[in-house]
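Supplementary Text 2. Reproducibility record for the structural model of the 293-residue chain.

All settings were left at their defaults, and a single model was retained for analysis rather than an ensemble. We include the record here because the model underlies the residue-level annotations in Supplementary Table 4.
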Amino acid sequence: MKPASVKTLTCWLFLLLFIVAASPAAAQWPRMTPSKDGVPISYEVYGNGEPTLIFVHGWSCDARYWQKQIDHFSKKNRMVLLDLAGHGHSGMGRSQYTMKAFGEDVKAVVEAVGSKEVILIGHSMGGPVIAEAARLMPGRVLGLIGVDTFGNVAYPLTPEIVAGMVSPLEEDFQAGSRQFVTPMLVPDTPAPLREWILSDMAAAPPAVALSALKEMMGLFITGESAAIFQEVRLPVMAVNADLWPIDVENNRKHMASFEATVIKGTDHFLMLARPEVFNPALEEAVGKIVKRK
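Retained model, structure tokens:
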């Protein structure tokens, strides 16, 4: 290769690296901030623009489950992905992994990034988590968006039903986890994604997963899952799969407002399985909340 060609190639290489580094979605090291109880919480920040979008993962998941949203949403907004305590890169050390404590994790991250106006987006268990976080941050949260959650915040559960759900996980967490998560997937879920989700969630720390699951289910037994919205008087949206029904009217009895968008033919992890449909639907939900400011 001629020297001039080498020089040209080198220039192009540095230009490419600069573009990648300057991209809103450029890879970065996670940051850390302590939650109220001192547990370190890992989070990542992408893009600029208010309001800030705070993405909260579900049970036995972590920030990686939002990987297909980064490029789309970081173009217009600052977006924050976090790992709740006991998940991903965040610390452990709690005896109980309650939704309120997870809400404190979210609050700590919001304060760390200095956001004055946020929209909280929560997948699955992330739904009750963002409701708790909103209660802890009055005046700062514009609205909540559930992702395949908030199907019926007053769904009737009994201790016996919960015990039956949890028992296989207590006996053999890895096998029980796969059994628990499999119905959340659909035949069209790509095989590599299916196996990644099943294997990844089965690798969660059992003590954390069992505590979080029992605490979340307990809110439905006591009715707190619905009662919290007497304090959290914010617009609530949902972008859900069509695996389970959504009781819109019942939710509206408890919430200041509630709207739902249903994406057909996808699974519980629709942000990974169908990002080309999910991202525009989530963007529309964000837009509706912003218009209500």
